[in-house]
Design goal:
Oligomer: single chain
Shape: elongated
Structural class: mainly alpha
Distance between the termini: 12 Å
Order of helices and strands: HHHH
Helix content: 40-55%
Length: 83
């Protein structure tokens, strides 16, 4: 399964959404999403008045890439999720 399945389920199912917010590992496991041992997952919810910006992990050797190369990597987000 995918994270998209978990998100769609949270939109439909208030109890699952509450579990996803309070116990992401267990909720994601229900949807078949495996989280690597030692990885912490925090689920936050955007609202009309409050938006979260997630800053992804920088690519390897980010300090060696040009501004244009970094922009292309950021736009493509090659690793949007680590799991």
């Amino acid at each position: 399964m995918t994270l998209a399945n978990a998100i769609a389920r949270a939109w439909r199912d208030a109890a699952y959404k509450a579990k996803l917010l309070s116990d992401p590992h267990a909720a994601l496991a229900e949807e078949g999403v495996e989280i690597p041992v030692g990885t912490t997952v925090k689920v936050v919810e955007n609202t009309a008045d409050f938006q979260h910006l997630v800053l992804p992990v920088a690519p390897d050797r980010a300090d060696e890439l040009s501004a244009d190369e970094l922009q292309k990597v950021a736009a493509g987000s090659p690793k949007p999720f680590l799991f």
